[in-house]
Design a protein that fits this description.
This protein is α/β, with parallel strands linked by helices and 284 residues long. It has 14 helices and seven strands. Strands 1-5-3-4-2 form a five-stranded mixed β-sheet, with helices on both faces. A two-stranded antiparallel sheet has the order 6-7.
Length: 284
């Protein structure tokens, strides 16, 4: 995440200065509740168990940051430590109580997770979206407060426009942000999903994904944007068949009609891609 957020201008030190000098108290585990603005939806159980083991041996080294609520406390930063402490069997954890408003709660939770690589791409996107909606902020305002570029925020928000199945693949870390940016260039949703499936199944690198998508985009117009007269004369039935074949093969397909005969052109972009298409052709 440090590479992804190079140049992060605002960190927890900027939002919570000099916490080392603040009074640490012991708070009962049962009096703590998760941050209602926590952007992270998934906690890796293995990581929690490893931290619990460390806590059993060394205790909670870094205090949690909390704020007082009507009943008990809300965790501002340190939910992972709280979960691990419960698993380790602790009854109390060290904490620093801060007087923070909702906006600061959102910012701290977002920045803490961004800096610690705890969020997947969709969680980051949803966190930015929630932040914008809750406080009526624009993209550049969010970028300035969090300490990233406006394009960084915009790129993540675009992920939420992708089909749900692709968002789920991103959330499961089956696709990366780089894959998603490349795939987003495909406007046909069925082809987009098909291409994403291939990307996952065949283990494309981001570079390979970019090359195949760019080639696909370059090929489709040649089959669909010929001379106006030819486009108008193409039978609707034939165009529908082309669309069905593109969806089936997950690649550019063009049906060329002549007076006596015709041909079907199926594009492939690598030897592996050709093998995949041949396997589809051999299916019953």
């Amino acid at each position: 995440m440090s590479k992804r957020l190079t140049g992060l201008g605002r960190g927890l030190d900027a939002l919570l200065p000099s916490i080392e000098d603040e009074h640490v108290i012991d708070v009962k585990i049962d009096e703590l509740r998760p941050n209602p603005y926590q952007p992270r939806k998934h906690f890796t159980q293995d990581a929690i168990e490893q931290l619990a083991t460390s806590i059993k041996e060394h205790g909670v080294i870094q205090p949690l940051i909390v704020r007082k609520s009507i009943k008990g406390y809300e965790i501002v930063a340190g939910e992972r430590r709280w979960r691990a402490s419960r698993q380790a069997g602790l009854s109390t954890v060290p904490a620093i109580v801060k007087d923070l408003d909702d906006r600061k709660m959102v910012e701290i939770a977002l920045i803490e997770n961004l800096q610690r690589e705890d969020l997947n791409a969709i969680e980051i996107a949803e966190a930015y979206q929630q932040y914008m909606k809750q406080f009526a902020l624009k993209q550049d305002e969010v970028a300035q407060r969090v300490g990233v570029s406006r394009s960084h925020v915009a790129n993540y928000l675009r992920l939420l426009q992708l089909p749900l199945v692709i968002q789920e693949a991103l959330a499961a870390n089956k696709l990366t942000m780089g894959h998603a940016k490349a795939l987003a260039g495909i406007k046909d949703e069925q082809v987009l999903v098909k291409m994403a499936d291939r990307c996952i199944e065949e283990g494309w690198t981001v570079r390979i994904c970019e090359e195949i998508v760019q080639q696909f985009i370059a090929d489709v117009p040649r089959g669909t944007k010929n001379k106006k007269a030819k486009k108008e004369s193409k039978d609707v039935f034939v165009k529908d068949l082309e669309e069905q074949l593109r969806n089936y093969f997950g690649t550019s397909v063009l049906i060329r009609q002549g007076k006596k005969h015709g041909k079907i052109e199926i594009q492939y972009y690598s030897q592996e891609d050709l093998s995949r298409i041949l396997q589809l052709l051999q299916k019953d």
